[in-house]
Amino acid sequence: MTSTLDRTPPVRPASQAPTAGPPQLGIALAGLVGALALGTLVWQRSGQVPAVLFGIGAALGFVLFHSRFGFTSAWRQLVSVRQGAGLRAHMLMIAVAATLFAPILANGVAWNDVPAAPSLAPLGFGVVVGAFLFGVGMQLGGSCASGTLFAVGSGQTAILITLGGFVAGSTLGALHSPFWTDDLPSHPPVSLTTVQPFGHLGAWVLTMAVVGAIVGLTYALARGRGGRGARPVPPVDRAPVARGAARAVRGSWPLWVGALLLAGLNALTLWVSGGAWGVTFAFSLWGSKLLDALGVDVMSWTFWQDPANAAKYQAGFLAEKTSVMDLGIILGALVASALAGAFVVHRRIPGRLALGAVVGGIMMGYGARIAFGCNIGAYFGGIASFSLHGWLWGAMALLGTVAGLRLRPLLGMSNPRPTDSVC
């Protein structure tokens, strides 16, 4: 479950799951009308593909909310109390996505005859430093890239502070990107499809082997948590649950359901757009557009002079892929949370937590930009695309998580304890 800016997580027996509140039909209807209106506007201004991607984004927001699929909390639980359930869900998601990506990438075709391309990136200081910063920022900001969007959509207005930092950091990262990509040494992108003679099949086998090893390691860590008398690894907290068929739109979904659906929607994104799901490029676009409106000549930046980036900038935020999908995620989460009776507007936040949200957001935004992506574009999409940089990103973000956990108490945030009954 992706964390928010709460000071202390609730502690209760794992057998007790909170009951879902009554549906907030007015808010849900407003969200649906807003999504339909914005989707229509995207279709009229930008065409069919961006409108479809907006719809996929809305589906992602719905799934993210109901499965409470967390990246921030999964790494925090693993490091703090050796709870590996979240990371195992990551591995299931990546394994299924890689299985779906392989035939799409091997054939190189997608919808509207757009050639599908893997999410490859160089191996350099940008990935190492950027992913580490992102890992620290996740724990200070209380969320990841996708988690920030669905938290905003579900009414957690406090997380807007994190989003603001995200946009600022991503924009600053765009300004500084030449230093990290051109001035520092790096190795060209490495695809697992080219390091062995069996192409995508061999890359898929290698990926499954690493995924299996990581799953096994999480169980080994749990068994080795302590000696005689040690408490068992605490279970993951459970979100409000509605019983029966209503659970599909009212209650929480198992992590494995979220993993399967996110993998499928990422593969659909690859097929429709020719590229995997991403989140943070939009933040650089939004921030740069704002600076442009204030009179800053952002088009003189090397980042926006790149032909591909310049084309996305000129297309605008209602046409650029990650931008329309991010907007869809927010609205999809809004509808999902309202139907679940969980849409709550947070109005107050302690000063130290606000500081952590800002600093964490800036670190994540900057880190994602110089590391060629975030937990979605680099970690999820990169590994599923058989890019070695995705694994490097994950390893460095995990190290950043260790550092971030040491900083959280300074900002009034608690970490899971071995004596907690839930994480």
UniProtKB/TrEMBL annotation:
Q: How does it sit in the membrane?
A: Multi-pass membrane protein
Where are the residues of the annotated region Disordered? 1-20
Q: Does the keyword Transferase apply?
A: no
What InterPro entries does this protein's entry cite?
Sulf_transp_TsuA/YedE
Q: Where are the transmembrane segments?
A: 25-43, 49-71, 92-111, 123-152, 159-181, 201-222, 253-286, 327-346, 353-372, 378-405
* Origin superkingdom: Bacteria
UniProt protein name: Uncharacterized protein
